[in-house]
Design a protein that fits this description.
Helix content: 25-40%
Number of helices: 13
Strand content: 15-25%
Radius of gyration: 24 Å
Mean pLDDT: 89
Largest sheet: 8 strands, mixed
Structural class: alpha/beta
Strand order of the largest sheet: 12-11-8-13-16-17-18-19
Number of strands: 19
């Protein structure tokens, strides 16, 4: 953790059974060097004692709009915070924040702040899935609020399902990412970025398809990193945001859903017309059935003879029609002769960069949260990016791309 250190974090705790986890969140933030100011709702004290936070946090607990030494505590908290974190966030707090209702110190602080806000929902599955809660979450995301969670698992009363508060480690890591993004130079502000993600699905029949193990994690990491750096991002994807719901949601990204390589080719070609940067992180199927069955193929009818044909080469098509000044980044997911295959792809597709991925390596490639890549540039440079999170890989690649872009503009 680096971005949390020295920052003033308002830790809001609302009245849910998961409030006990806020104690661990407070401790982790303090251990990371943050200055933590706990703000508890009246309901929170039914589950955790204020004395616990008084002992652990940087400042005593604050609870009241009217009984504090400061005559306007919500304004002071909001103006001086580097981040406001609510964990757990109940349906009531989420609804009040979305509607702009300041019924207590916590909701008043949320409305009074211009600092980044991280909301960590926790509630029973039925509540989490209620349309009103879903609408309120969508409203907050559109406003730029980061949402962490909830996860699926054991709930109060022994039930199982979505609604459990994300782990303290994930929550603190999300706060660190948010603060890192807000502190970074917005070197992509004003740029239009197109990213593809996930593996395409080429139908065999209405039930089955030819696909691959791509989760879309690396593509989404690029989209979120570019958005955090100020870009207007369109992600063309075959998958919903991957991983548990405990990952941070970043606003400002337009999602275009597709299924097949042909659909992805059409959507990408259209979006790329006005794009400054195109990042082809999707794992596009190379082949598709010529004549998909109209009904489900039955095992009793024997093994079907499936004739295959090539799918559109999206990267080559983009390279051939690339507008002047556009930057095209391709991916090469390989299992052998990685460097040679990536170099051949770079020279044959018209890309400016190829990100080579040895997906046969341990903890690398499909479905993992980590990755290790080598970036090949069209001018012959080779830049290794060692094992790190996929978001950090995206950051390293975009650092290279934007550094080259800035240098090119300076030389013009």
């Amino acid at each position: 953790m680096t971005s949390v250190a020295g920052k003033r974090i308002v830790l809001g705790v609302s009245g849910g059974i998961a409030a006990y986890k806020a104690v661990e969140i407070c401790r982790r933030l303090m251990d990371s060097g943050a200055h933590v100011i706990p703000v508890l709702t009246k309901g929170a004290t039914r589950f955790v004692g204020r004395a616990t936070f008084d002992a652990l946090a940087s400042e005593p607990v604050q609870m009241s709009l009217f009984d504090e030494d400061d005559p306007i505590p919500h304004t002071t908290l909001g103006q001086t915070a580097d981040c406001v974190l609510v964990a757990p966030a109940t349906a009531r707090v989420i609804g009040a924040y979305a509607a702009g209702i300041s019924s207590d110190l916590l909701t008043a602080t949320l409305i009074a702040t211009r600092a980044p806000v991280v909301i960590c929902p926790a509630m029973h599955t039925e509540m989490w899935e209620h349309p009103a809660v879903a609408d309120n979450i969508a409203t907050l995301v559109k406003r730029g609020v980061s949402i962490v969670g909830p996860e699926s698992g054991r709930l109060a009363g022994g039930d199982e399902g979505a609604g459990r508060l994300s782990s303290p480690a994930d929550i603190v890591a999300a706060v660190d990412r948010v603060l890192d993004s807000t502190g970074r130079r917005l070197d992509m502000a004003g740029l239009s970025v197109v990213v593809t993600a996930g593996g395409t699905r080429e139908p065999i029949d209405p039930v089955r398809y030819i696909g691959n193990r791509s989760s879309g994690k690396q593509g989404y990491a690029f989209a979120e990193e570019a958005a955090a750096r100020g870009a207007k991002v369109t992600i063309i994807t075959t998958v919903d945001r991957p991983g548990p719901l405990g990952t941070t949601v970043v606003s400002g990204i337009t999602v275009v859903r597709v299924n097949t390589a042909e659909e992805m080719a059409a959507a990408t070609a259209e979006a790329a017309k006005e794009a400054d940067v195109v990042i082809m992180a999707a794992a596009v199927a190379d082949f598709r059935p010529v004549d998909p069955a109209g009904v489900k193929i039955k095992k009793r009818d024997g093994v079907p003879a499936i004739q295959l044909e090539p799918t559109p080469d999206i990267l080559a098509g983009l390279g051939a029609s690339k507008p002047e000044g556009q930057i095209l980044v391709g991916f090469a997911a390989e299992t052998c002769e990685v460097a040679d295959n990536a170099a051949a792809k770079l020279s044959g597709k018209g890309a400016d960069y190829i990100v080579a991925n040895d997906v046969a390596a341990e903890n690398v490639g499909f479905a993992y949260d980590t990755n290790e890549v080598t970036v090949l540039a069209s001018d012959g440079r080779v830049r290794p990016v060692g094992m790190r999170s996929k978001r950090q890989v995206a950051q390293a690649v975009l650092d290279l791309v934007m550094g080259d872009r800035d240098a090119s503009e300076e030389n013009q």
